[in-house]
Specification:
Shape of chain B: globular
Oligomer: heterodimer
Distance between the termini of chain A: 32 Å
Strand content of chain B: over 45%
Number of strands of chain A: 11
Largest sheet of chain B: 6 strands, mixed
Order of helices and strands of chain B: EEEEEEEEEEE
Chain lengths: ~120, ~110
């Protein structure tokens, strides 16, 4: 499978514990995004990277959240001291920022299957 | 920041009929408008997108229209089939390589 992958697919944790999720983007993609999706809602933007640089963070990303993309390939999202309100699906997406031979940017975001977090 | 409103939240149509989902956005600087389909338990998948320099785009049974003046865009699905049943999300962005702001989704049910 050459698409975006995420690990784990499901995580159940107790309130107060730390959790870490991993995202592996499509290999040639230089942009990587994290979104959070709660039941019945659209994905909400959390943060994104261009290679290893974190370019933007949402206000949703409190101090308990941190994301890294150390080598510009895979990324990790860590949530410290989890709360019940953190329960959601965490989606990763990747895209290629650049131009094609036709000088048209091709920036479709491809999503991974998500990590479903349940905080008890 | 950008705000995207989507309606209806649920839509039921008979197989073969057309379905229309509408979205409005708030930021006039937005210039990229994708539509994603998400089946139950699956990842969102892009089905069509449009950029602000185009008013309409078609791909087989799917079309999207954009009215920049009114800041709204719509998804049209013709000759609906049961496999079109899913949640559809519209989104907006100032640049397709930046973050997307999503609508709240429309649950489309195509009745056989």
């Amino acid at each position: 499978d050459t698409g975006v992958s995420q690990d784990p697919r499901h995580k159940i944790t107790k309130r107060g514990q730390n959790v870490t999720f991993r995202c592996d983007p499509i290999s040639e993609h230089n942009r990587l995004y994290w979104y959070r999706q709660t039941l019945g809602q659209g994905p909400e933007f959390l943060t994104y990277f261009q290679n290893e640089a974190q370019l933007e963070k949402s206000r949703l990303l409190s101090d308990r959240f941190s994301a890294e993309r150390p080598k510009g390939s895979f990324s990790t999202l860590e949530i410290q001291r989890t709360e019940q309100g953190d329960s959601a699906m965490y989606l990763c997406a990747s895209s290629y920022r650049g131009t094609t031979l036709l000088s048209q940017s091709y920036n479709e975001q491809f999503f991974g299957p998500g990590t479903r977090l349940t905080v008890l | 920041g950008e705000n995207v409103e989507q309606h209806p939240s649920t839509l039921s149509v008979q197989e073969g009929d057309s379905a229309v989902i509408k979205c409005t956005y708030s930021d006039s600087a937005s210039n990229y408008f994708p539509w994603y389909k998400q089946e139950l338990g699956k990842r969102p998948q892009l089905i069509i997108d449009i950029r602000s320099n185009v008013g309409e785009k078609k791909d087989q049974r799917i079309a999207v229209t954009l009215n920049k003046t009114a800041k709204h865009f719509s998804l049209h699905i013709t000759e609906t089939q049961p496999e079109d049943s899913a949640v559809y999300f519209c989104a907006a962005s100032k640049d397709s390589a930046r973050q997307l702001t999503f609508g709240s989704g429309t649950q489309l049910t195509v009745l056989p």
